[in-house]
């Protein structure tokens, strides 16, 4: 694992507080969208600096992409559902 930082899996923000991180997952709170998250690592490098499921830097995609980018190695990871955190509509 290159970095002890995790991007929010919902909005993609780097403004997060990581509460637990290991090689298989990371948990934390996003200070931008005020949601808790459970992140899975990049399939290529194991990093957690990956675009969010619903956008980058707090914005949302009009149409969800099939993949999201790892900012550590550039690998395109398959988009995962946001999980139990859900999304407020």
How would you describe this protein?
With 89 residues, the chain is mostly beta strands. Helix content is 0%, strand content 24%. The protein contains no helices and 5 strands. The protein has strands at 16-21, 26-30, 36-39, 67-69, 76-78. The strands form 2 sheets. Strands 1-2-3 form a 3-stranded antiparallel sheet, with no helix packed on it. A hairpin with a 6-residue loop joins strand 4 (67-69) and strand 5 (76-78). Mean pLDDT is 80; it is low at 84-89.
Total number of strands: 5
**Rg (C-alpha, Å):** 12 Å
Low-confidence parts lasting 5 or more residues at pLDDT below 50?
84-89
Based on secondary structure, the structural category is: mainly beta
How far from one another are the termini? 34 Å
Can you summarize the main beta sheet? 3 strands, antiparallel
Series of secondary-structure elements, N-terminal to C-terminal: EEEEE
Estimated helix fraction: under 10%
Shape: globular
Strand order of the largest sheet: 1-2-3
Summarize the structure.
This protein has 89 residues and is mostly beta strands.
Characteristic key phrases:
89 residues; mainly beta; two-stranded antiparallel ribbon
List the helices and strands and how they pair.
Elements: E1 16-21, E2 26-30, E3 36-39, E4 67-69, E5 76-78
Antiparallel strand pairs: 1-2, 2-3, 4-5
């Amino acid at each position: 694992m290159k970095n002890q930082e995790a991007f929010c899996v919902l909005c993609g923000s780097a403004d997060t507080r990581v509460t637990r991180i290991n090689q298989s997952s990371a948990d934390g709170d996003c200070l931008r969208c005020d949601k808790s998250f459970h992140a899975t690592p990049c399939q290529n490098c194991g990093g957690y600096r990956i675009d969010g499921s619903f956008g980058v830097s707090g914005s949302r995609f009009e149409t969800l992409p099939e993949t999201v980018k790892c900012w550590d190695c550039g690998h395109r990871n398959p988009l995962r559902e946001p999980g139990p955190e859900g999304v407020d509509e």
